[in-house]
Amino acid sequence: MKQKYIALLACASLLTLGACGEDFLYKAPQGAIDKEALTNANGVDLLVTNAYANLTENGWGASVFNWTFGGMYGGDANKGSDGNDQSILNTMEMYNMLPSNGYLNEKWEWVYKGAKRVNNTLQIIPAVTDMPENVKNTRVGELKFLRALFYFEGIKVFGPMIPWVDETIEENNPLVHNDKDIYQNVLTDIDDAISKLPETQDMVGRVNIWAAKALKAKILMQKGDMASAKPILKEVIESGKTSNGLAYGLENDMNANFDSFRDNGKESIFAIQFSVDANDNGNSGMSLCYPHGGSGNPGGCCGFYQPSSELANSFKVDANGLPLLDNSYRAGKPVSYRNSPIALNNDEIAVDPRLDFAIGRFGIPYKDWGTPKNGWVRDAANGGIYLPKKHVYSKAEEDAGLASGGFSGGWAPGSAMNLQYLSLRDCILMYAECLANDGQLAEAMSQVNKIRVRAGLDVNIIKKDGKPAANYKIAEYPSSHAAFSDKNTCIKAVRMERKLELAMEGQRWFDLQRWGGDYMAKTLKEYVDFEKGYLAKFSTASYLPAAKVMFPIPDQQISTMGNDESGQPYLVQPAPWK
Fold first, then answer.
1. Is the backbone of residue 58 left (phi > 0), alpha (psi -120 to 50) or beta?
2. Which terminal Cβ of the chain has fewer Cβ within 10 Å, N or C?
């Protein structure tokens, strides 16, 4: 009976195939869209949107805000949380990194996933006939910008010796050696983007020509080519405008740059667009990096990315309200001290008001959530006494439905707050670096003072019961300061200003990296030695050698790619990591 049923089924199948003919074999599978269906204007728009979406589809290791690679590794913060949660990060924060670390693999996969999405679209666009040429040109410009950004992220983490895969390679599993410096490929892409992009766009989230120029300048700065970056930065600062037509300018209120209600303002050159839609697209890459449990707090998870004591104390100022460029901020009493339940701020010490803008401290209002509570720190012995703050949403945002502690599967915090990948404040301080490098010291300090004047505005002074919440003091550098006459002092001042202004924005290690291996190694050694006095775990930390200005290529990728026909591996680990 069973054999008879199988025979009947086989006959039916043959009849079906005979009736349908060979067309049956060429039908697109369900759940997939074939290339032909996307070769039209609507398909291109879908594919370009999909390429942009790579910016938001990032795991904790792949986040474009680099809280691990840029922030934690650079000394802005430690891992936080407790020693057991995401223990894979313990070796990274102790500078005992291994090529088997899964966060490395996440970042690598993200880079090439983004490049693949761009390449797929660039392969289709030439055959599209129902899209106006000017629109097609703009979309190509957007794609070239995105591919440059994806590979730039790869360069920042792994160095420039990584495979270049573009639209000329159609294999689904391309085998490409990492034997060439890809900086020039990335710069060619961004030049092509600049040649094709308009000044304004119909959607504020789309990239424009000014964002492409800003990205080119940032790439050149990372490459060490300040001479080429300098005129671009000047042009962006003086003439640039946002995709929605706003002339670039510093916001008076620094909170406007970290606020869902005021996204895409005049200081935002290129921002990743987040939302709280049905897909819970609320910045999953930062979902660990909110205050921990306890009542009435933002997020409730998971206590990671706690600012370091070294960073917090960097905000000390002298009697004139200026930074302590001689690093004496590491001496004497700290800006906050351990106390029941967790800590209190030290009112004896004068501090730059940006301390409490970038860092959450006990006893200081935390946005509109009140003062932090005991449970907001998960394990003070492991993570210290400070809290991340800039990217954390306000109570007003939560009340308006723009944020929640229950995105991404019902547990992860997130919000509709955009986070700025390219900002005017960053460009101003990079331009100041270029000026200082060329000996234009007064001009460099003028740029620095722009940033400091904004930071000292009353709107940026945190109040408690109507009065400043701490002993805040900040001033412009006077023309009599040594930074106006001594190049080394000027460079120190600019670098310190970047540390303070861009604190907790995932930038720090990439700055140390581009300032040279020796500088990076010395700075991180001092960081580790200082942090030992506050967190015992740093007694097990290593000192990062000057040669390791990149992370290792993931072992998993080397193994997956394998060897070429001559037996040579496609991916070769950089010499410092062999």
1. beta
2. N
